[in-house]
Amino acid sequence: MPDLSGIVKAYDIRGVVGEQLDAALVRDFGAAFALLIKPEAPAVVIGHDMRDSSPELSAAFADGVTSQGLDVVSIGLASTDQLYFASGSLNLPGAMFTASHNPAKYNGIKMCRAGAAPVGQDTGLAEIRDTVEQGVPSFEGKRGTVTEQDVLHDYAAYLRNLVDLSGSRPLKIVVDAGNGMGGHTVPTVFDGLPIEVVPMYFELDGTFPNHEANPLDPANIVDLQAKVREVGADAGVAFDGDADRCFVVDERGEPVSPSAITALVAVRELVKEPGGTVIHNLITSKGVPEIVAEHGGKPVRTRVGHSFIKAEMARTGAIFGGEHSAHYYFRDFWRADTGMLAALHVLAALGEQDGPLSALTQDFSRYAASGEINSTVTDQVARMIAVKDAYAGKSGVEIDELDGLTVQLPGGAWFNLRPSNTEPLLRLNVEAADRAAVEALTDDVLSIVRA
């Protein structure tokens, strides 16, 4: 039996095309997915990004699905949140072909059940892997059919209906699509809005000729920052490769923390539903739960990762959820993540008042943060224990291990240290009252991690 552990990840399938993924294997994944969801749905909706390998692989997946007697609705080129829209609005399970911000040689499959409900290791992905490894059983009945359906305009209209920009003052924004799917969705979503879009790298190109399509890496927003200052824009927005995440810079070209965006959007959602629950993962700023509570909401803390966020949203009926990785989840969007909807909220908030974005977001940015710092280690467990031992005996220190190690210090500073699931790394996030305190605490923790 083949060993697929290298490409079947916690939330998706991802690997190097031609080495780890090819059409024959993807066909088997399609057939196994069809077997998983056959009792629940008559068809599967499939979309793909702009990578050179995506059309062939998505067609192979469709062939696998139809070989098991289910139909396929192909939406063609799509962002990941556009696929979630199709899954939700059509009430069908879905599969999206993308490797997000990974280099061009990679591709992958994100799968969901009807209503954009996630498929991860504990919700079907392990079963799909087992079916493929053991050999997909043949189906003797009638094959399914493939039909094409364009949902881009419906997706755009749905988003615009959720955020009212009709009263906004005219805005100029720079959008860096990173040669990814934002170049496909932004023109339609923003059509007719009081927003002048200055496009950057809208050409769909899965080789990412200008920069990696990962806006969380500061190196990848340098062009956006410069263009915002050059044209005197009100803001800048960068999307990742499959356009499900967005990153914002203000009118000075300065990055706006995803935690600040989470707090801003949460406040807007709480206006619509006073007292609602808002989910935040444990590495978002502590300003997020503070602001949510101050506006009458109920903050709920969860582990890092979209499956945990979505599960907790379902359990609590939460109206919104945010992660420090710039993933934003909306109950009104089937609890799925959509960077586009978050961007519209930010622009609506900006357009409703006369001040600059820097002043608007200052109210939501209460503390200084390190950003995520990765350290390569030979023994993750030993280094984690060393850090825990160093802080456990100190007066007033609180420690929890919900996801890695979170240490709360007297005076309000805190840090989280988490092991990577796929690499020999420890990931450190630090927050404190000011930059000097962040740097001091960061140096202290790293001296133990890297000893």
UniProtKB/TrEMBL annotation:
Keywords: Isomerase, Magnesium, Metal-binding, Phosphoprotein. CDD domains: PMM_PGM (cd03089). Its cofactor is Mg(2+). GO terms for biological process: carbohydrate metabolic process. One of its GO terms (molecular function) is intramolecular phosphotransferase activity. Residues 8-134, 154-253, 262-366 form the Alpha-D-phosphohexomutase alpha/beta/alpha domain. InterPro entries: A-D-PHexomutase_a/b/a-I (IPR005844), A-D-PHexomutase_a/b/a-I/II/III (IPR016055), A-D-PHexomutase_a/b/a-II (IPR005845), A-D-PHexomutase_a/b/a-III (IPR005846), A-D-PHexomutase_C (IPR005843), A-D-PHexomutase_C_sf (IPR036900), Alpha-D-phosphohexomutase_SF (IPR005841). It holds the Pfam family PGM_PMM_I. Residues 372-446 form the Alpha-D-phosphohexomutase C-terminal domain. Belongs to the phosphohexose mutase family. This is Phosphomannomutase.
